[in-house]
Design brief:
8 strands, alpha+beta, 3 helices, binds zinc ion
């Protein structure tokens, strides 16, 4: 079972410019920035109620975020759901026929274990599962 929308990931070209816009939009500052070198992304988080907004900027041209922006432009990149047991959810969703990008969880931003589902099997939406470490 997925517990709640943990965050929404948004691909941006310039994280500083977007951070300013989001600070104005949401009426509050971001609480955290983090570079995830293994993913080729710089991230920046806003807490908004129980959920978060994660801005994602590519750190190199091979980054999945760079490729996403090249193809589709800036915008919503993924929806992340909080789970209590990521290994169990991966097994459950795989058994249900969903296509996993990661069959074993990896280390993500914000102190999480994460795994992505392929948008081919989720109606075009990149889905992230995340569990607090
Ligand atoms: Zn995310």
């Amino acid at each position: 079972m997925l517990n709640k929308v943990e965050h929404i990931g948004i691909a941006v070209k310039n994280i500083e410019a977007s951070a300013k816009m989001y600070e104005t939009l949401l009426g509050k500052p971001s609480y955290k920035t983090e570079v995830v070198e293994s993913e080729g992304v710089s991230t920046l988080f806003f807490q908004i109620g129980e959920s978060k907004i994660e801005l994602l900027e590519a750190t190199n041209p091979e980054s999945p975020i760079a490729k996403f922006i090249e193809k589709r432009g800036e915008g919503i990149h993924h929806i992340a759901y909080d789970v209590s047991d990521i290994e169990a959810e991966i097994r459950r969703l795989k058994a249900e026929g969903f296509q996993l990008i990661h069959e074993t969880p990896k280390s993500g931003a914000d102190n999480k274990k994460i795994a992505f589902l392929h948008p081919k099997s989720t109606g075009g939406v990149l889905v992230e599962l995340c569990q607090d470490k």
